[in-house]
Design brief:
By secondary structure, the chain is mostly beta strands. Helix content is about 0%, strand content about 25%.
Length: about 55
Amino acid sequence: KVVTAIVEPSLANAMPDQKFQFERHGYFVADRVDHVQGSKPVFNLAVGLKDSWGK
């Protein structure tokens, strides 16, 4: 599934395999192939966050 989102401009300079947590969604890793510094960043979901609030 491809999702378009708005992130901080500094993430365009992330190194491949660098990891980030995107608020309320999960942990993402900069793609090894498609993430090119200075262009549109590509991140892959590594671990999703479960929503167990209210259970």
